[in-house]
Amino acid sequence: MGVIKSFFKQIAYILPEVEPPKKKISLRNRFIWSGIILILYLIMGNIPLYGVRTGGQDWFAFLRVIFASSRGTLIELGIGPIVTAGLIMQLLAGAEIIKFDFTDPEERGIFTAATKFLTIIVTIVEATAMIASGYLVLASYSVSVVTIVFLQLVVATILVMLMDELVQKGWGLGSGISLFIAAGVAQQIFIRMFSPLTVRVDDEIQYFGAIPFIIQKALQGDLQTTFMRTGNYPSLLGLITTLAVIFILIYTEGMRIEIPISHAQYRGIRGTYPVKLLYVSNIPIILASTLLADINMFATFLWSRFNPNNQDPLMNLIVQMETTEGGGLRIVGGLLYYVTAPTDIFQAMADPIRSLTFVITMIILAILFAVVWVEVGGLSSEKVAEQLVESGMQIPGFRRRAYSINLVLKKYIPLVTVVGGFFVGVIAGVAQLLGVFGSGMGILLMVDILMNYYQILMREQFEELYPSLARLVKI
Length: 475
Known about the structure:
Shape: globular
CATH topology of the largest domain: Preprotein translocase SecY subunit
Number of domains: 3
Number of strands: 9
Distance between the termini: 34 Å
Helix content: 55-70%
Mean pLDDT: 83
Order of helices and strands: HHEHHHEHHEEHHEEHHEEHHHEHHHH
Strand order of the largest sheet: 6-5-9
CATH architecture of the largest domain: Orthogonal Bundle
CATH superfamily of the largest domain: SecY subunit domain
């Protein structure tokens, strides 16, 4: 593995990099930088890809919230390659396939360079797959147009990677990835709730936003038709479910088991180690969604190259597709049909088997990835016990040994890992079927990200108001 790390060390010199600020930036200026980066990202999401035609069903729609992407624009790939590369590197490091000493700044730099390099590789692979599979419908398949579209996707994703790095290195707050996801979900929720634009539904002009539509129907004395709408348009059911899911998630974020701990040398220092119900947070959903997205993209490539007419019985078992009037692709059969979400609640009710298998798939994947992430991400009871002992902490009434602390933690961590994975899988799957604004996965991510931002802001304000005390606490 020394050869691999040496390669990444050498390649780090040619990879693009954002320099960190020479001194800590004030909270106000970090807000400004975060706002500028977010505005740039939103602008990129409104610039269409040159040479690409729009239209057809977007069967990646339910995953776009996870990847903060926008169809047919410069952020077509969104943060997908960045997340995929980051998760692969985390898994390799956590499983010690490639060992990194994160206490050494040089090793951390090599890890960052490896992640960047892998991000560029994933971007190239995904861009190639999207063009070659026909998922992106090009105006012309000449060499020049294909090259221009490919370069747009690669360069835009590299820019997004640098924008995320700029925020993370101290110019902004939190991480760019979290900022892009939260803003994208919030934007979708706002549009689907309040948009005054009109659409034609069943030969009738209706407001797109749920609240304007409800007011419109109330004035017409026809409130019973607001509960569900065809075409996946925002409805009263979606509004109620969205508010309910947000409330449930905020309430669940506070559910935890607090294990008392104290410092072995300074007996007056006491605290608790919280084991939250959502112990692994939204990681299982991100991993599950990334896996499904990559499988779908690979299957589309195989279908377009080897089974475009759905005549191969073996390939038909995996996926069957058809071309829509707009030139896009739609999954109509095969195993992948049953692990992708229906486009609206009417499709969900019309094909309950597909709806059920989709939810079960999300639950199984969420539980599996929760268990795997706890082991490779350093969150297992054994790893946490070692970390507590190394930091000088102990559980009152138990010997200050990793073995003793592990016995206590083992009562809770494996259980909440499975229960938490099951919970987020159910929320993500069922909410998707019920037409939650921003999708169930999106709201899961948004609530978790906003809670983390709240904690960051509280810590930043504390450090600005009481710098001496903040340094003491860090020690």
